[in-house]
Amino acid sequence: MTSEVLPVYRSQLPECFIVHLAITLDEARTRATTRPVYITEEEFELLHRISATPPAVDLILDVTGMTVNDQIECIGNAWVEAESAVR
């Protein structure tokens, strides 16, 4: 999600709950080793730097050290909490 795209989501899906998943560069590298590689190390680092400062999303969640199930649980809880706050 970029700051240029965020307003489009906000206007088209005004009640959308937008989460930015943050991760350290080292953890991102570790996770990347489990997938096919299509970009260079320099491109990988650039993408990480670009996403290190997210736009004004509803939640920034540091997923470093979290399992996929941990992430799902945290996002689900935050979504329920946000929904409750709107009511």
Tell me what the structure shows:
The chain is mainly alpha-helical and 87 residues long. The protein contains four helices and two strands; from the N terminus they run αβααβα. A two-stranded parallel sheet has the order 1-2. The chain is globular, with a radius of gyration of 15 Å.
Structure at a glance:
The chain has about 90 residues and is mainly alpha-helical. About 50% of the residues lie in helices and about 10% in strands.
Give a topology summary.
Elements: H1 6-12, E1 19-22, H2 25-32, H3 41-51, E2 59-62, H4 68-86
Parallel strand pairs: 1-2
- The strand order across the widest sheet is 1-2
Oligomer: single chain
Global mean pLDDT: 91
Strand content: 5-15%
Helix count, per DSSP? 4
Record field, number of beta strands = 2
**Contiguous uncertain segments of 5+ residues:** none
CA radius of gyration is 15 Å
- Give the ordered list of helices and strands: HEHHEH
- Summing up helix and strand content along with how strands pair, one would put the structural category as mainly alpha
Largest sheet: 2 strands, parallel
The first-to-last residue Cα distance is 27 Å
What global shape is seen? Answer: globular
Helical fraction equals 40-55%
